[in-house]
Every structure is written in structure tokens, then in C-alpha cells.
Amino acid sequence: MSSPTRRPPQPEWLAALERRRSVSAAGLHAPGPDPEETCRLLAIAARVPDHAMLVPWRFILIEGAARGEVGALLAEAYRARNPQMPPEKREKFAGIMSRLFPAPLAVIVVSRPVGGTMIPEFEQELSAGAVCMNLLTGARALGFDAIWVTGWAASDAEARRILGLGEGERVAGILHVGTAAETPADRPRPDVEALTTRWAPPE
């Protein structure tokens, strides 16, 4: 049997991955993905490792007028859930909730581990995280900018209900996708060499 032939490197892919960085949600504007591009982006997101093909995740899209509608509901929920907070502070954060979806498209990646299988729940949650990362790189490949966030709306039970999550589901990420007027300067990155060891037999 002959040895396999290595595929040639893809310099453009590598350069794009090496330059990828997030853009704040507030800095994302139209244009965003059109319906065909959104479908393609979700198909890219779904091409992730998924032990036993359980598909332990799903998508919720927020776009158009729904962005303001869900923001208003989240703002009201924040006020109701935080009655003890000083009014000024409460209104400040309620205002943030009302403007939570400024980008043309938000994709909520919902983690929904499948019970009764041999696949650990942790592995299934990692698969949902991989979906989020594929969304980020896919958005860049399509010519858009994006950011992966969570926050109060992802963790509060009433907020999750408003977003459309059911029992046993969690928000793996809220992915905002659009076009940035300018991409911010890169941030410091980890020292990969300092984080890397090579296995040796235990002493």
C-alpha cells in the first residue's frame, strides 16, 4: 500500500486564522449575512466533532425587528429580577439588555446534552463550544466580523426562557455577526511555548 500524499498547505486559510479576532457587538453594523449566507454559515458551524452523532446543540436566530423586541423583554426581566439594586445601576444594566442585539444577526448556540448515552455530558458541551468557534471562523471566511459572548442573558433562568431555551438547555454562546467599521488592534496572545510540554513517562 502506497503512502498517502499530503495535501498542500492553504496559506490564505492559515493567514486568516492567524489574524482572526473578535469585534465588540456594539461595533457590528449592516451589512450582515443574507438568508443564503446565514444558511451556509450554520452549515459550517455544524461541521464539528460530535461523538456518536448526537447533535447536542441547536440554533436560535435573532435578526430584524426581533432584536429590539427581545431586548425590551430582557430589559424588563432584568428590572424585575434585580429589585434590590440601586435604581441608577439597575437602569444602566437594563439599558444594556435593551441594546443587547445591535448586530444584524445574532446566533444563539444552545447546548442540549443528550441523556442515556455513553457519551459524557462534558464531551457534548465541548461539541457545542466547537460550534461557536466554527461560527466565528465561518463568519470571517464569509467576509463578516463577529464576537462570541455570554453574560446575564445567557445565565438567568427567565432570560433563557425569553430567548427560547427549554428545560435542560443552556446557552453555549451568543454569536453577534455583522460588519465592523474598523477592526481593533490585536490583543496580547498567550505564549504557546510556555503552555506546551511534551509527554514523558511518569517518574
Automatic annotation (TrEMBL):
Which part of the chain is the Nitroreductase domain?
A: 18-178
**InterPro entries given in the database record:** NAD(P)H_nitroreductase, Nitroreductase, Nitroreductase-like, YdjA-like
Q: EC number(s) in its UniProt entry?
A: 1.-.-.-
- List, separated by semicolons, the cofactors it needs: FMN
Q: Which residues form a coiled coil?
A: none
Record's family?
A: Belongs to the nitroreductase family.
Q: Keyword check for Transcription, yes or no.
A: no
Entry keyword set: Flavoprotein, FMN, NAD, NADP, Oxidoreductase
What name is this protein filed under? Putative NAD(P)H nitroreductase
Query: Which major enzyme category is it?
Result: oxidoreductase
Identify the stretch(es) annotated as Disordered.
Answer: 182-203
Question: What organism is the protein native to?
Answer: Ancylobacter moscoviensis
